[in-house]
Amino acid sequence: MSTVFDLKITVQPEHIDVLGHVNNVVYLSWMQDAATAHIEALGLGLKEYLELKHAMVAVEHHVQYRKAALQGEEIILRTWLNDINALYSFRQYAFYRPSDRAVLFMGNTQWACIEIATGRPKRMSPTFMQAYQPLSEAENPMDFSIYNA
Fold this sequence. Notes:
By secondary structure, this protein is of the alpha+beta class. The protein is 21% helix and 36% strand. The protein has a five-stranded antiparallel sheet with strand order 1-3-4-5-2, covered by helices on one side.
């Protein structure tokens, strides 16, 4: 079973748009950053993708912006896997601001396994299937209490 994965960031000036808060497309970039850091932690980063000759690519995103993030704020980018089959994995995201205990953003991505050389769909190898395990139903991915002390 997989667990939640947290990536701490501080909002930088380059994340801010003309309205003074984090630009919408930055959240998509953060989704990618969190997913990439998570797969690296699972032992399936770019090096392993190239060796195995297949990789996961995003095919669909759903996002919900809840509250604005501002420059200098610390944000927890949380991600976890919630489902998997032979071709797809499904990843969830919740971005949390500890200073006011607010969930700023929720999202999910459907990822497809492809053969790198052709870009065509490919069944996940046993290595992928073993690494991309969904979060245990006993674990609450929205429990941010470790950041509320």
